[in-house]
Amino acid sequence: MSADLTNTVIFACDAGMGSSAMGATLLRTKLKAAGITDVTVINKAVAELASDAEFVITHSGLTERARHMAPDAVHVTVENFMATPKYDEVVETLRAQRA
After folding, report:
1. Helix 86-97 to helix 19-33 angle, to the nearest 10 degrees?
2. In the list 26, 41, 53, 83, which could disulfide-bond 70, CB 3.0-4.6 Å?
3. 13 in active site
4. Could you give the domains of the chain?
5. Which residue in 9, 10, 12, 13 is the catalytic one?
6. What own/partner pairs with CB < 8 Å and gap ≥ 24 does 32-35 have?
7. What's the pTM value of the predicted model, to 2 decimals?
């Protein structure tokens, strides 16, 4: 994972609700615990992704659609929004950007 200084992380799913919203809450908690307070974490439907999105987290079944919608974003794929070690990797990436 790499990116320029990321200001917004988007959790994208089919409807923009449900498990992606819970995943967004988990990441917000991890970022706060790491002292990273300048990143906004939101959730939305894949169909609503803007082409200029910076950092997108999707379930594996939606990654290709998300890449099509936001081709220049950093994309992270998870199998389960509620339980994944990828969030720790995201936190470390965002921390490294700010070092």
Report:
1. 50
2. 53
3. yes
4. 8-97 (3.40.50.2300)
5. 13
6. 34/91, 34/94, 34/95
7. 0.90
